[in-house]
Amino acid sequence: MMLFSWGWLQAQTPLITDGLMVPKRDLGNGLFYSNDSWKNYWEGTLKRDNRNIGTLSTQRVTWMGVYGLTQKITLIATLPYIWTKASGGTLEGMRGLQDVSLSAKYNFFTKDWTQNRIRLFALGTYAIPASDYTADFLPLSIGMGCKSFSGRLTTTYSYKKAWHFTVSGAYTWRGNIYLDRPSYYTNGQMYFSNEVQMYNQFDFILRAGYHQPNWRGELFYTQQNTLGGGDIRRQDMPFASNQMNYSKLGASFLYAIPQIKNLAARLWGSYTIAGRNVGQSTSITAGLMYTFHFANNQ
Amino acid sequence: MKIPKFYTALFFIATVTIVLRCNKEVTYTEGLYPLQPTNVDANAGTWKPVFVASYSKYAASVPLPADTSTSAYKTELATIKNLQSVLTSDQQKAIAYWSDGGVLRWNQIFRELVARYNLPPAPLSNGTYIFPDANNPFADPQFPFSNPPYASRAYSYVSAAIYDALKAAWYYKYQYNRPSPYLVDKNVKSIMPKVDLPSYPSEEAVMSAVAQTILLALFPAAYDEIISKAGEQRSVALLSGRASSSDISAGLALGKAVAADYLARAGSDGMSTAIGTKVQWEALDDTAKAHWAKLPAPVEASDVVTWLSLEVPARPPMLPFFGNKTSVGLGVKGWMMTNANFISERPGPPPIATQREMKNQVDEVKYYSQNLTGEREAIVLKWADGAGTYTPPGHWNQIAEGYVRDAHFSEVRAARAFAFLNMAMHDAAVGCWETKYYYFNPRPTQLDADIKTGTGIPNFPSYTSGHSTFSSAAATVLSYLFPSDATYFNDQAQEASLSRLYGAIHYRVDIQAGSDHGKRIGTYTVNFAKTDGAD
User: Which CATH topology does A6-297 take?
Assistant: First the structure.
């Protein structure tokens, strides 16, 4: 169930929600592997398991590109390939390219005094399905199949360049989706249409981190609410426009590998502490990012 | 500084553009428009009943009405005029809603009810299931579980009863020939489309009474909604100037009387024994083996692989005695087919599970399981019609809706179309369920556990395919009603059938035998329809 909404992926992705920028004309390329799984899920507000699903696991390989357009504008692109599998029951897993996203991050305010620094960022992200996967086979679908645009504001306070505290919030507008069937029932109503309204979403994330020149550690809390939609009915399958909400706690770690210049390893994970119409997932991601410094080469 | 400003502007413009494009309100399309029948079917009171003994038997419900010149009737007109002078916007919306045709609207409403209640009970923590309880419909599990056999029976009762009741209404309308209020008094506005039809008894009231009475018995937990819709249809008949309060009272009484006859049938049609008991479920295995041993080419019990539930925990089979015709006192009655007809039309046996021919069938399913292309997946999802939906019979009602609407049928002829469609699909449910439990054949995944499926495996035997039987019976009836589109209906039925092979939950033999069976079943209804006096 909406394990891989665009918002979920992005909220924990480096650079999207943190207070960092890429230097001008730096180009970073990253490849990340994620594993996300859950056994329990929330059917509306009722927490349960389902032996016809067993454990639902979702694996993902994400390419990420970042580029410093100017000192104050960073561009970020992501493209995940996803495959799902249910350990119980008979339903076939699905696989494919999910949504490609392009973000622009703008550092529009910076204030320094003594050991303190405050920076503000605005970020816009547009995402669109990269293949014609279906959203009508949850929880095995690889995504929600909708176009979306997200507007995000982030503020970071840092002390002595070592301690970083970040608050980031986003509002995501989501486009409608179209099913292969001519009707559906959700949220207490029959719709004689194949068009499904995907409700907008709000998310925020709080991060506290400690940064050293060659490593960074962070703890985070993130929450996402879908601003409308119905619950999964008793013993029903989830539906794309369900009201999918969650809160997660997580940690992330970055390590600049000293032996290889410009290569950084990242590791982050999270655990769902509360939710509605989503799986109680545990997720871990690991990856490498390599940066080319074009400005320095000239 | 110049460059960031340029990018800021670009960023802002892009944001606004994208947000405006994304933030699109959903268009909820009802797909209907105001009904203006091309022919009122003035002779419908002479068409053959599908179930009731006669229309004249309801004379006590529809007594001779007061003349339109009487003061009693003029008081009724004054009431309408008063109400019309203070119409609220909600009342205007209700008039617009019901102007699209009562038969079509009730069809939408009962499809919605089926979708709402089509959810299986959740397992208890001890691995067992409890059944929905008609006396406690709001509990968990809710009552009913309107699965495909339940739904097909429900659709057929409401549709057939509305059809018989409307013919009875036409019978009395042309006996008394009382005009609509807006024709009697030019100060009464006609707010619905004008239909040249006598108004006593009111057809809206007849429909509302039948639908209300039968739906309340089938979906008791939806009491408030059903009562409210039925009441709204009656008030629309009054507010629109189409019927007076005495037209409506007579329609209400007639509709209730016809519905009572249908409910009496429903109370003794065998549905109460369709679930059976644990002892009876355990005997299904031996009964099926006895059937295989009695075939013209007998099969030994050791060669018969019988069905097992693939759900975890294992769930009792869905309505195993719904179609039963081989034990006394069990099984649901058909509409157009006798018990002997069901037995004689039953498809022959599927290949024996232990033999090469069945292995080929399994291999073909496995191929589709491993090769679910985007195109085939879309077909699987289009026709899944599983839990939480209006079921395959509901899907065929949805297909029929557009044709009935575009044909500009009178209410009574629209009712005829849905009655025949749903009576045929009910008979298809009985015939298919009879076959399924007669042979008790396993699903592909039971014979090869590596077969993963593109849709949920229904919790009942494989042979024959319900989708194929329903779809082929429906296409047969719709092809009779709308002959110029027969090719389309048959193509859709074929696609619905194949969707079950593509989804890896049926063998090809299930869908072929089901399609042929459905066509034979549908023909019983068509043969009746050809002689009912409406053609």
Answer: Porin (2.40.160)
